TrEMBL record:
Disulphide linkage map: C31-C46
Molecular function GO labels: manganese ion binding
Pfam families reported for this sequence: Cupin_1
List of residues binding Mn(2+): H108, H110, E115, H156
Organism (species): Lactuca virosa
Any one GO CC term of the record: apoplast
Protein name: Germin-like protein
Highest classification ranks of the organism: Eukaryota, Viridiplantae, Streptophyta, Embryophyta, Tracheophyta
Signal peptide segment: 1-21
Disulfide bond as UniProt keyword: yes
Length: 172
């Protein structure tokens, strides 16, 4: 009798863990954004996969310098699903940020995204504040070719500390 009860508990626990398992991957290979659709579900609907073309996965424009003649002295050129429909639902985006001398990308956060950047030109100071009780300020001055990562959800910034222009490429 006890053997059957133990076996029943083991089986029940096994199925309980299986029921809690899930796959975070998308259900389809891609969901190219269809901005022309009148149906809006969580943003935009998916384009018919049979109508998807290479152009849906292509963007040109990151080679162009952004206009930094503004109060912050910086210009963000985004590559989101709006600019590159093939990014829709993939959970990644990219930006180019141009900085005038002493330009700033002010403190901000991405609650659900880690951010990694590389300096293409110039000298940038980057930094973030930890969320532990110490609220530590972590900062570094980066040169061309250097890479830095901001952990998910932490307040962070970048600023040009050089006398020339600066450019970075960033993924999140």
């Amino acid at each position: 009798m006890w053997n059957k009860l133990i076996l029943l508990n083991v089986v029940a626990l096994t199925f309980n863990y299986i029921a809690l398992a899930y796959e975070p991957s998308p259900l389809q290979d891609f969901c190219v954004a269809d901005p022309n659709s009148s149906v809006k579900v969580n943003g935009v609907t998916c384009k018919n996969p049979m109508q998807v073309q290479a152009e849906d996965f292509f963007f040109s424009g990151l080679h162009l310098r952004g206009n930094t003649s503004n109060q912050l002295g910086s210009k963000v050129t985004p590559v989101f699903a709006t600019q590159l429909p093939g990014l829709n639902t993939l959970g990644i985006s990219m930006v180019r940020i141009d900085y005038a001398p002493w330009g700033l990308n002010p403190p901000h956060t991405h609650p659900r995204a880690t951010e990694i950047l590389t300096v293409l030109e110039g000298t940038l100071q980057v930094g973030f504040v930890t969320s532990n009780p110490d609220n530590r300020f972590i900062t570094k001055v980066l040169q061309k070719g250097d890479v830095f990562v901001f952990p998910v959800g932490l307040v962070h910034f970048q600023r040009n500390v050089g006398n020339g222009n600066a450019v970075l490429l960033l993924l999140h």
